[in-house]
Fold this protein.
Amino acid sequence: MILYDFTCAEGHVFEAGLASSGSPAPTCRCGAESRRRPSRVNTTGASAGTPREQMPRSWRSVAGGHPDAVAYWHREASRRQKLEERHPELAGDRRPVLAHEGIFAGRPLRAGDDVAAAIAEVRGAAGAGGAGAVDASAPDFPPVSRPAAARPTVPVTTPPRPTVPRPTAPVRSTRGTPS
């Protein structure tokens, strides 16, 4: 059964259930011919809420622990958790990120990923000229070499810092003094 909105020549608006979209339009209660009309689309209240990535992660970001702010974000997190339980596709990948820089800038390495396969995948994308590609023939860690003139010949030592005594203010006692 599919619900459709109808209107008749007299201006009455009503809903009726049809077996299929090709079924003839029903007659109105007044007996006039009716025709299908576009249904309203409800655009309010369809929010998925605040994503986990935008929720506060520290005490400072919850207004310094203000009870109302903590209660609000607790409700938001509970709503999001229930929503993700009903719709797992909204949860995303919740595994911790192990590496996100260098060759893993385009696709982070996460806990449980096969490291060798992930590196091979990145290098395969590099050979195909993918986005964020690196030169597959380049070694992982190129050797660092300095010109001979830049190499220090004498060990460099830092002289010790002199200790300077700090002046101290006399401590005044408040005991036994009349107020």
About this structure: DSSP finds two helices and five strands in the chain. The longest strand covers residues 2-8.
